[in-house]
Amino acid sequence: AGQATGVGQYVNLPPTVPCSADKMTPDGAYFVENGEVLWLYLGFDVPSSFLQEAFGICSLDGILPENLRLDPQRSPLTATLCAMANQIRTVKGSHPWMPLKIACPNTKEEFKVISLLVEDPLAGQPSYVDHLCGLHKRIQHKLDSY
Fold it and tell me: CA-to-CA distance for 138 and 132, rounded, in angstroms?
């Protein structure tokens, strides 16, 4: 992921994962966007080598997300992450300068990202997929009754 495609400034993005906490590993870093904000979510076990190369830190302990910045000049990793962020912004088109914010574990930013995971059940409500299945079932039942 992150390698140039040879078409303009596009890069190969990593495979997408379902928008569910179950699919996000604690040692991963994920882009999550809602059309208004592009988040880079850092799992609580992100390797220190990633943190060192991306932000010049060894650990997320005591770090405030608003103090973290992705500088494309820092390293090849940050250049790749910035290219991915720019491509996501470009492809979305509705908001090409969507701000990039970073979310770390156990911060208010993490809860904002978690609220975007629409495939997770929330407060006793079915997940988005289960909701769609239930809706489809009700429509099928209504059509069958005609």
Answer: 10
